[in-house]
Amino acid sequence: MAPVNDPRFGFCRDCLAAQTSEGRRCHVCGSPRLLRHPELYRLSIAHVDCDAFYASVEKRDNPELRNKPVIIGGGKRGVVSTACYVARIHGVKSAMPMFKALEACPHAVVIKPDMEKYARVGREIRQMMRDLTPLVEPLSIDEAFLDLSGTERLHHDPPARVMAQFSNRVEREMGLSVSVGISYCKFLAKIASDFEKPRGFSIIGAEEAVTFLADKPVTLIWGVGKAFAATLERDGIRTIGQLQTMEQGPLMAAYGTMGQRLYRLSRGLDTRRVEPESESKSVSAETTFNEDIASLDDLVPILRSLSEKVSHRLKTADIAGRTVVLKLKSRDFKLRTRNRQLADPTQLADRIFRTGFSLLEKEIDGTRFRLLGIGVSDLSDDGRADPLDLVDVQATKRAVAETAIDKLRGKFGNHAVETGYTFGKIQSRTKNVPDEIE
Ligand SMILES: [Mg+2]
């Protein structure tokens, strides 16, 4: 067990040494970055937000930019996506029109966003979060909640120390800084992470929640945007403290379900769980064509073959999906997704294909498509999948036939048995694009 002593003395964010007095600097490394809080070792909900994420990634990748004001933005929308802290000193803010930003900071370096790169970096950081707990709920590319309850035995450290180590690790391994908020609920953890950016680490405990919130503006509450804040203002409500004096009944009478939220959050009552992204939300297969295709006849064999792939994966993983999703991309890259929920989850190629077909039929309007995909979502284990259809005897027969085909394929390989839909019709039309399980 790491040395966890008096939470009033806390520990050093840099060298992690537990402190033994109320001194202002770490007695081991001299750093002033000490974490102290009466509930320091009891809180386990964290919110992590990368600091000026896009701009920081660009600065990391081009050291010449380091001390310069950098604005990520431009492009079609003509607004600031992210401004680095140097640019912020000059008054540049996110979502500001580009021309205004350049008025405020004419010597800024403007860089077009490279979303692919940021997404890649974001994924790496998220993976580091998952090393700490499976309960990671991403809010955006550079932001997530973590629930570290019950991880103390795994890490031999309480959540606050684990998160301090995490933020050091991101700096060391990714060359980027994050801000961390820790509390007993999501609402306050998120507020805390915003407190002393960049490289922040703030703690809001249960004891202080109500007092802490009292003088804050209502806009701090989730879901209170400009319009709703204006409504509240008309009713004379500006601070969260005012909400704390109001009862739930009248608040709900005035603002509906939002009234309940105002009542609860103003008092620091937030029982929402950290909801991790499920590992696999859907199973799908898609393919891009060599040449764009407009006709149903040409699309059908491809749909059939993809349905079989999806079905094969479902059967292998012993799962089934209840919603069939069809995906089409037109020549001008417009995406169409259509879905249909089935009465029961399925893992049968035949049902996936027939459902996909009925969705596809309606999309045939002369548009030339460059991509077709089919998949299922709403996944469950296969226990309830595909009950025998007592009404549609043909469907039952097809299910029996499919099981027989599966057995043959199991013995002789996937291409041993082709159905009439696909036989000899596909190879030349499709590129070899890897399929995805999302
Ligand atoms: Mg951020």
UniProtKB/TrEMBL annotation:
Instruction: Give the subcellular location.
Output: Cytoplasm
**EC number(s)?**
2.7.7.7
| One Gene Ontology cellular component | cytosol
Give the residues annotated as active site: E143
UniProt-listed Pfam families: IMS, IMS_C, IMS_HHH_1
Residues annotated as site: Substrate discrimination = Y54
List the catalytic activities from the record: DNA(n) + a 2'-deoxyribonucleoside 5'-triphosphate = DNA(n+1) + diphosphate
- Which cofactors does this gene product need? Mg(2+)
InterPro entries per UniProt:
DNA/RNA_pol_sf (IPR043502), DNA_pol_Y-fam_lit_finger_sf (IPR036775), DNA_pol_Y-fam_little_finger (IPR017961), DNA_polymerase-Y (IPR050116), DNApol_IV (IPR022880), IMS_HHH_1 (IPR053848), Rev_trsase/Diguanyl_cyclase (IPR043128), UmuC (IPR001126)
Amino acids binding Mg(2+): D49, D142
Q: Which GO terms describe its molecular function?
A: damaged DNA binding; DNA-directed DNA polymerase activity; magnesium ion binding
- Where in the numbering of this chain does the UmuC domain appear? 45-225
- Family assignment from sequence similarity: Belongs to the DNA polymerase type-Y family.
Q: How does it assemble?
A: Monomer.
Role noted for this protein: Poorly processive, error-prone DNA polymerase involved in untargeted mutagenesis. Copies undamaged DNA at stalled replication forks, which arise in vivo from mismatched or misaligned primer ends. These misaligned primers can be extended by PolIV. Exhibits no 3'-5' exonuclease (proofreading) activity. May be involved in translesional synthesis, in conjunction with the beta clamp from PolIII.
Kindly provide the name given to this protein in its UniProt entry. DNA polymerase IV
Q: Which organism is it from?
A: Phyllobacterium zundukense
Question: Taxonomy-wise, where does this protein's organism fall, top ranks first?
Answer: Bacteria, Pseudomonadati, Pseudomonadota, Alphaproteobacteria, Hyphomicrobiales
